[in-house]
Every structure is written in C-alpha cells, then in structure tokens.
Amino acid sequence: MSHPRLPMPAWIAGIASLVLAATVGAQTPATGTNRMGSNNATAKATAESVSSGDRKFMEKAAMGGMAEVELGNLAKEKAANAQVKEFGAKMVQDHGKAGDELKQLASSKGVALPTTMGAEHKREMDKLGKLSGDKFDREYMAHMVKDHKQDVKEFQKAAKESKDADVKAFAAKTLTVVEGHLQLAEHADVSGNTANLSGNAPAVSAKGKQTSTQAGTAPR
C-alpha cells in the first residue's frame, strides 16, 4: 500500500520551517552573550573614565572608613570613659553610613573597593586591642585626633581637585562629617570630668591640653 506523497511545495515549506527554527535557536544564546559582553564593556569603559587620583581616594577612604568602624566597635567594648564609648559609637554610625554611600558611588563608576582594612590599620587595631581602661581611652582618642587630621586633608583635597563630579560631591559632603569628628576628638575629655562630646564646655583634649573652642566648629 503506497502512502500519499506531499506536494513538492509542502516539502520545501516544511524543510524551510525546520531550518528557520534551528537558526533562531542557535542565535538566541549568542544574543545573550553579546548583551553580556556589551554590559561588561560598558562597565569597563565607566571604570576607565575614573581618574587614577579619584580611584585612589575612593580606595583609601573605603579602607579608612572600615578601620574607623572596627576601632569604634573596639572603643564601645573596651573604653572605661563613657565619653570615649560615645565617640566610638558615633564612629560606627557615621563611618558606616559614609561607607555605604561610597560603595554605591564606586559601584556606579565600576570601581572595585577593598573589602578589608590596610596593614597599617590592622597594626593599630592590634595595638589598641591589647590595651584597656584609661590607657586605652588615651591612646584611642590620641589616634583619632591624628587620624582625622589626615582624613580632613585628604577629603579637602578631593573636594577641590577630584575630576569626577560625583566623587567631588561625596568628598565635600563627607568632609563636614570628618571635620566634626576631629573637633569632637580634640575636645574629648578622657580625664573623667563633666564635659561631654556634644557640649561646649572646656575639656581636656586627648593630648592633655585644656581648650575652650566650642565643639562642632569645623577646623580651618
């Protein structure tokens, strides 16, 4: 018994449909690959558009911020003076927030930030971790004064000289926070007197000198 044969045009149409389907299926992964490649190229171009100076500032600010948070947590745990504990808590809060903002900024620029503290910060962490009581309080606050003086210089420079407008805006915004921290650190009373971190009364600084400058006034 013979089977009916399809007309030639039908055979041709069937083969053409199979070939078309196979072609579309083969092209679909390639399209996805091309799209991924395009996204990677865009991210690379964005990262390359950030100047080396701006990149270095963001990387250093990220490591410094992480160190401030870790040292702040250490102060909350080990400080004997309530004022020092309060200052440590403020470092955790303020630098944690600034760090999150910096991560978002870096991500938008295609810049990969460090995820751990630098060697210098780790050494300071180890040094302070071995201290306790009044000695910890004095050493921690003295380090905060020194560290924030350096931070102020670096953020001032970035706020003035950054090539990227967003990096410059971040530096300018965070500078006011860092300046406030420096003032608090300089006026922190680690002798057990009554002045507090948010007050305006004269206090003994981390260096042991009495001063009457009001806390909260940005240094010039």
How would you characterize this protein structure?
With 220 residues, the protein is mostly helical. It has two domains: 8-49; 52-211, Up-down Bundle (Ferritin). 73% of the residues lie in helices and 2% in strands. It has a two-stranded antiparallel ribbon with strand order 1-2. α2 packs antiparallel against α3, α2 packs parallel to α4 (119-129) and α2 runs antiparallel to α5.
Number of E-type strands: 2
CATH fold field value of the largest domain? Ferritin
* Count of spatially separate domains: 2
Order of helices and strands: HHHHHHEE
Average pLDDT metric: 79
- The CATH architecture of the largest domain is Up-down Bundle
Could you tell me the radius of gyration in angstroms? Answer: 29 Å
Instruction: Specify the CATH homologous superfamily of the largest domain.
Output: Ferritin, core subunit, four-helix bundle
Number of helices: 6
What spatial form do the alpha-carbon principal axes imply? elongated
The fraction of residues assigned to DSSP E strands is under 5%
Characterize the largest beta sheet: strand count, sense, and whether it forms a barrel.
Answer: 2 strands, antiparallel
Oligomer: single chain
The stretches of 5 or more residues where confidence is low (pLDDT under 50) are 36-43, 198-205, 207-220
Which CATH first-tier class of the largest domain would you pick? Mainly Alpha
Straight-line N-to-C gap: 104 Å
